[in-house]
UniProtKB/TrEMBL annotation:
Protein name: Heme chaperone HemW
GO molecular function: 4 iron, 4 sulfur cluster binding; coproporphyrinogen oxidase activity; metal ion binding
Keyword Iron-sulfur: yes
InterPro entries named among the record's database cross-references: Aldolase_TIM, Coproporphyrinogen-III_oxidase, Elp3/MiaA/NifB-like_rSAM, HemN_C, HemW-like, rSAM, rSAM_sf
Record organism: Candidatus Aquicultor primus
Domain Radical SAM core: residue ranges: 1-232
One BP term from GO: porphyrin-containing compound biosynthetic process
SMART domains reported for this sequence: Elp3
Any single GO CC term annotated in Swiss-Prot or TrEMBL for this entry: cytoplasm
Pfam families for the chain: HemN_C, Radical_SAM
Coiled-coil region: none
Function: Probably acts as a heme chaperone, transferring heme to an unknown acceptor. Binds one molecule of heme per monomer, possibly covalently. Binds 1 [4Fe-4S] cluster. The cluster is coordinated with 3 cysteines and an exchangeable S-adenosyl-L-methionine.
SUPFAM superfamilies: Radical SAM enzymes (SSF102114)
Family membership noted in the UniProt record: Belongs to the anaerobic coproporphyrinogen-III oxidase family. HemW subfamily.
Length: 373
């Protein structure tokens, strides 16, 4: 059952830290882009023989910049061409400054049942440093508007380790977010991506580089605080009330298939991986044909096994050796025994029924994952 992802690459502005496939100033292209999505989805559906799906995720970019009717049209073409199960999780990413009661009520009517709200911070100075277009008060209002519009499954995205942010500041942001009682929180340590405005500001010494030790303290604080507030830590950066883990993202970490529609979207079908051209204008020109494919590869079994490890270990449940054996017909220790022994030896992994990250392993996740690549 593939997950379906739809990419909307439009934003009001480019945030200072962002290296996603997103573009400001393309309002005039919205209509043509929706037409292109409709033709790509219709063309792909024929290949996938009306496959069933239990999760649709509309991400970006800022999908809530579009009119609800445009989102509704995309959802309708998915429903016409795939079998969307009755309790499917249907998410959309939403930025606070783009939200109104009318828009969210229309999105609910169109079938969206989960909102992922990009707060990033609840401190106005840090929001400005990040180049966000909303204030903390707007974010809190937007959350209340979403509840008022009937959303019962809301996730809040937050970033910690922002230059100049103290542990006390992060603790306050987290406390304010928890007070809203969201079903899900994603908390990411800030990474400085190359080519971003934030990287340039750091290179020019206009902004200080995030402190890695402080970021580690913030992550440990986040884990404790959200645990005490009743959230399950189910993936390195993700926390959910029981029953509200994101089905869509779990498909990725569990190695499931996914179909990505839109500019720059990635797909996986068995061992095949392919991705669309990233630029919206090129995508619009080519969406209905294979000319939209920018890259296509067939993974080897070794690649699949590596991926199963570094994606599976992102989950706090870790990797189950029996499931690994059943999937690849090889014992996990015959493939990765040396790396596993080393990582258990230095306290980054622990072996019970499953192989999992320790708290130290969570802090040093990239070091763990690099051993399986
Ligand atoms: S709103 Fe999101 S996708 Fe758009 S520029 Fe900001 S971080 Fe990037």
């Amino acid at each position: 059952m593939p997950a379906i992802y739809v990419h909307i690459p439009f934003c009001k502005q480019k945030c200072a830290y962002c290296d996603f496939n997103s573009y400001p100033g393309l309002d005039a292209a919205h209509g043509a882009y929706i037409d292109a999505l409709v033709s790509e989805i219709s063309a792909e559906a024929a290949r996938f023989n009306r496959a069933s799906t239990n999760t649709i995720y509309i991400g970006g970019g800022t999908p809530t910049l579009l009119a609800p009717e445009q989102i509704g049209r995309v959802l309708n073409v998915i429903k016409e061409n795939f079998t969307v199960v009755s309790d499917a999780e249907i998410s959309i990413e939403a930025n606070p400054e783009t939200i109104t009661h009318e828009k969210l009520a229309a999105l609910r009517d169109a079938g969206i049942n989960r909102l992922s709200m990009g707060f990033q911070s609840l401190d106005d100075e840090l929001l400005e440093l990040l180049g966000r277009k909303h204030t903390a008060a707007q974010a809190v209002d937007a959350f209340r508007v979403a509840r008022g519009a009937g959303f019962e499954n809301i996730s809040i995205d937050l970033i910690f380790g922002i230059p100049g942010q103290s542990l006390a500041n992060w603790a306050l942001t987290l406390e304010q977010a928890i007070a809203l009682d969201p079903e899900h929180l994603s908390c990411y340590g800030l990474t400085i991506e190359s080519g971003t405005a934030l990287e340039r500001a750091i290179d020019e010494s206009a902004v200080s580089r995030p402190d890695e030790d402080l970021q580690a303290d913030m992550l440990l604080y986040t884990m404790d605080s959200l645990y005490e507030s009743g959230y399950e830590h189910y993936e390195i950066s993700n926390y959910a009330k029981p029953g509200f883990a994101c089905k869509h993202n779990l498909t990725y970490w569990d190695g499931g298939d996914y179909l990505g529609f839109g500019a720059g979207a990635h797909s996986k079908a068995g061992r095949a991986r392919y991705s669309n051209v990233a630029e919206p204008a090129k995508y619009i020109e080519s969406a209905g044909s294979d000319a939209r494919i920018a890259e296509s590869v067939e993974q080897s079994v070794a690649d699949e096994m590596s991926e199963a490890m570094f994606l599976g270990l992102r989950k706090m449940d870790g990797v189950n050796p029996e499931e690994f054996h059943a999937r690849f017909d090889q014992a996990i220790d015959s493939v990765f025994g040396e790396a596993i022994e080393d990582l258990v030896g230095v306290g980054l992994l622990v072996r019970n029924t499953n192989l999992r990250l320790t708290p130290k392993g969570i802090l040093l996740g990239n070091e763990v994952f690099s051993r399986f690549v």
